[in-house]
Structure formats: structure tokens, C-alpha cells
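task queued by scheduler; priority normal; single chain, no ligands, no partner chains; default sampling; output format set to C-alpha cells
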Amino acid sequence: MTKIGYRAHQSRPTAVKSKTGINAAARAGTLQTEKKFSVGTNTRAAHSTEGQKLTKIDRENEVAPPPKVDMAVGKAISAARAAKTPPMKQSELAQKINEKPSVINGIA
């Protein structure tokens, strides 16, 4: 840091940003530079891999979709619904087995 101005005798240094000021300090031999690390990043996230580990665990534990049901099962359910008197609707069947109507629609 280079001290410039009428308060140069005080201990508080100021940063020189202009090229002329930097060149003058370099000629005088009072130029000091500091390298800043991890500028512009979240330092906690830049040095931690915990988020990556948690993402990997989440991907490993994904819920797999249920296995596909054979078409014969759907046709058997439809035939059994139609054989009842009066015929049972898909929504009624879903209500009786405590399932969503969309699930029954996907099977039958």
C-alpha cells in the first residue's frame, strides 16, 4: 500500500488505483501488492464438497417408478368391473381400493 496525501504520516494506508500512482510508487520503491484469493465466489461453497456429496446421495436414493403391469391384468380388471351389476366405474374402483383414479386409468 502506498500512502498518498497530507495524512501520509498516519498509519492508515490507502490503495492507489490509477496507473500514474502505481508507477510513481514503483519508482519510489514503496509498492506493495496483495493477491486476493477466491474473489467473487462464495468462500464456504468454494472450499466445501459437502453439497456435491449430498447431491450424489440424493441421486442414488431416487424413487424408482413402479414396474409396468401387463395388459392382461388391465383387461381382467376391466372385465371384472363390467361383469358387476351395475357396472363399476374406474373412479368407484379407485375409491374402494383407496387409490387415485389416475392410477386405475393407467392400469385398465
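post-processing summary
- The chain has a mean pLDDT of 78.
- Residues 71-107 form one domain.
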